[in-house]
Amino acid sequence: MVSTKVLLVAVVVVCVLVETLSAQRSQPNPNRRNRGRNRAGNRTRTAGNRNAGNRNRNASNRNAGNRRRCEEIEVPMCKGLVGYTHTKLPNRFNHTTQLQVYRVLEHLWAMIDRGCSQNFRLLACSLYLPRCAGRGAARGPCRKTCKVTRRVCQASLQQFGYTWPEEFDCNALPKKRCLKQGRHNSCSMDHTQCVDIDLPMCTDLSFRIGMSPNMFGQCNRTEIAMEMEQFRPLVESQCSPKLGLFLCGVYMPWCASREGGLTFPCQEVCSEVREACEPTYRRLTRGLPWPNKLQCHRYPASSNANYTCVMEDDVGAINLP
Ligand SMILES: *[C@@H]1O[C@H](CO)[C@@H](O)[C@H](O)[C@H]1NC(C)=O
Ligand SMILES: *[C@@H]1O[C@H](CO)[C@@H](O)[C@H](O)[C@H]1NC(C)=O
Ligand SMILES: *[C@@H]1O[C@H](CO)[C@@H](O)[C@H](O)[C@H]1NC(C)=O
Ligand SMILES: *[C@@H]1O[C@H](CO)[C@@H](O)[C@H](O)[C@H]1NC(C)=O
Ligand SMILES: *[C@@H]1O[C@H](CO)[C@@H](O)[C@H](O)[C@H]1NC(C)=O
């Protein structure tokens, strides 16, 4: 059974947090529009995008000169989640670094989580981070992968106010030497509930019940666990004793009981963890910024009376409103 309270709190929280994740995407942002134009091949240089010309020159230098090698995927919405581990850049949009790719996919992250699970993720990731295939050209998504995904996902994306990204132009994609879609799976937002936490990285905590779907709309716990795995090296670096607590609360906000009382890690915990771990994260990912999902403005401060948040792994200390 799902109590109305959990449902209401969850829906509010999901709205607030998902909206902030996608805010940059949906707001009219001149930089972003410029970037889109460049991606479409328009090389107009504008104040907001001074580097575009350099980036293209870099890319063409590299194309003309030495062949690029395969590199391990570090971009957090793709790493460990798409069935292959290495990519080769530049991609079809002439991005030469994973940082450039991250900046684009960051805006699509909420859509990737919300979309149609693996196929939408595969489409987005393989478009920007094509699978390295040895010496040959890297492999992006097949035309059919794109079309099938669009057919299944478009309506559900529209329901959440997203439009199919114009860069996902199915007809521009190849029919051969490309990546095929997998089985369709998805989860519904209608069934917010408190369920047992069975995430391998969260077994040491005293929190045992968590919200599903989480605040990003993810409810396939296999996939949540796969996404969390990318942070294991960071946890093992012991950059912060609270990193595990924080990550578990991010990926499965805690329910104090099956009946209700939703709690999050406090913003203070987030700030402490970020300060301690960001340099290590950058090093481990060869230069990526602290991921959007882990940014601290998303989590309630302990002074915020609207939410209950957690400072320590100490369930007994939670005072539910
Ligand atoms: C990428 O670079 C190549 C070679 O410099 C160029 O022909 C192509 O139009 C560029 N594509 C985009 C999308 O900018
Ligand atoms: C670039 O975009 C501008 C305005 O959006 C347009 O006027 C111009 O013709 C475009 N240039 C190319 C090469 O497509
Ligand atoms: C690429 O362009 C940037 C400027 O945006 C420059 O600082 C950098 O040295 C260039 N890299 C290469 C390999 O040409
Ligand atoms: C959950 O995700 C895994 C990994 O992608 C997939 O194999 C499985 O079918 C998904 N489960 C459901 C119920 O969609
Ligand atoms: C708490 O919720 C109320 C009503 O929704 C809102 O006006 C207020 O700004 C919120 N307080 C904080 C600290 O977010």
Automatic annotation (TrEMBL):
Residues 32-42 have a biased composition (Basic residues). Residues 65-197, 189-312 form the FZ domain. Residues 1-23 form the signal peptide. Disulfide bonds join 146-170, 194-255, 202-248, 239-277. GO terms for cellular component: plasma membrane. The lineage of its organism: Eukaryota, Metazoa, Spiralia, Lophotrochozoa, Mollusca. One of its GO terms (biological process) is non-canonical Wnt signaling pathway. SUPFAM superfamilies: Frizzled cysteine-rich domain. Pfam families: Fz (PF01392). It comes from the Eukaryota. Residues 43-64 have a biased composition (Low complexity). Residues 24-66 are annotated as: Disordered. This is FZ domain-containing protein. Keywords: Developmental protein, Disulfide bond, Signal. The keyword Cell membrane does not apply. GO terms for molecular function: Wnt receptor activity; Wnt-protein binding. InterPro entries: Frizzled/SFRP, Frizzled_dom, Frizzled_dom_sf. The keyword Disulfide bond applies.
